[in-house]
Design brief:
alpha/beta, Rossmann fold, Dihydrodipicolinate Reductase, domain 2, 2 domains, 9-stranded mixed beta sheet, 6-stranded parallel beta sheet, 11 helices
């Protein structure tokens, strides 16, 4: 909970992204937020919102929601392929937009979203949930501050045994499995995390090469495993994705390698390895109250009229989408692609 000077009317576009249920709790935890309406056509999802969160005002489309309510903010939690049209419509009405990752299904859509937000002057933010992990934040800041010398490699692996297998809603995994709605398969779902952090740490890569295959979940019409390798002038980064991994491994994730040491995040702790010294556990500390989650930080940015910074900066999200799109091109062409 953070202190706000005004009350903000928030609308939600889509309940068919399972991250929305945690986000709804975050919105409703804020006393200066009024959740005034939800655009969602599936009755079972409406019923869950009624039952679990007391939401009672629904619209069949995002246009009806935006036109029917005086919104300050719209939370977009639907298939990636609809992010652009909702963002452009909201921006045209002067409504601030927060989107659950990734920015869109393609770089072309993401660029149009970025441009529409810039022209209209609204705040635009893409939520990468790892942003609010104190240990990951601490590791990235230590690396940026030079605690391990010059970073030459970054590695992050994300995934699980599959959306259906871990109990995701059919309304969620049905579009995750559709490359037109998602942008790809496991690659778009999970390679973005490592790509986003690598971009924050190392900037835009020179080139990328990516591989994606359906190795286990043969009922899915998309890749269930993928690897994206990013080449820099004097560094490289690796982002891995899986929808078929059994068990919560690896234990160290991410790992950042530098000329003078290594930083690993493991079980919520940051471990620093320096040459000739015993490994040292670094307490990550707590994030400021306004950075506890995407909701508190976005409200902070709107309340103080600042562009989201760091891992939440929309330019970084756009760069991430550009890298992901280049990786898809590499996957199809079976060669490295320059950026």
């Amino acid at each position: 909970m953070i202190s706000l000077a005004k009350v903000y009317n928030v609308g939600v576009a889509g309940l068919n992204h399972d991250h929305i249920w945690g986000l709804l709790k975050n919105w409703l935890d804020q006393p200066n937020v009024r959740l005034v309406g939800v655009a969602e056509s599936h009755e079972p999802l409406r019923e869950r919102a009624r039952r679990d969160f007391g939401i009672d005002k629904f619209y069949d489309s995002y246009e009806e929601l935006i036109d029917g309510e005086k919104l300050d903010i719209i939370q977009i939690t639907c298939e990636n392929s609809k992010h652009r049209e909702i963002t452009e419509y909201a921006a045209s009405k002067g409504i601030n937009v927060i989107i659950e990752k990734p920015m869109a299904e393609s770089y072309e859509s993401a660029l149009k979203m970025f441009d529409s937000a810039r022209r209209s002057g609204i705040k635009l933010m893409v939520n990468w949930p790892t942003t609010w992990n104190p240990a990951i934040r601490k590791a990235l800041e230590m690396a940026k501050d030079g605690d391990i010398g010059k970073v030459f490699q970054f590695r992050y692996r994300a995934g699980h045994k599959g959306p259906k297998e871990i109990g995701c809603s059919i309304y969620f995994y049905s579009w995750l499995y559709d490359p037109k709605k998602n942008g790809a398969g496991a690659y778009m779902d999970f390679c973005g995390y490592g790509t986003h952090m690598a971009g924050y740490l190392l900037g835009k890569p020179l080139s990328v090469i990516a591989f994606g295959k359906n190795l286990v979940r043969d009922y899915i019409p998309a890749e269930d495993n993928a690897i994206l390798i990013m080449e820099y002038e004097k560094a490289m980064a690796i982002a891995e994705a899986t929808w078929s991994q059994i068990g919560n491994v690896p234990g160290e994730n991410p790992v950042i390698y530098g000329s003078d040491g290594t930083i690993a995040v493991t079980r919520g702790e940051v471990v620093l390895f320096l040459d000739g010294k015993e490994p040292k556990v670094i307490p990550p500390g707590e994030l400021p109250p306004y950075e506890r989650n995407a909701v508190t930080y976005f409200l902070h940015c709107i309340e103080n009229d600042i562009v989201p910074e760091g891992l939440s900066n929309p330019e970084l999200a756009l760069q991430t989408q550009r890298i992901l799109s280049a990786g898809l091109e590499s996957m199809e062409a079976k060669r490295a692609v320059s950026i």
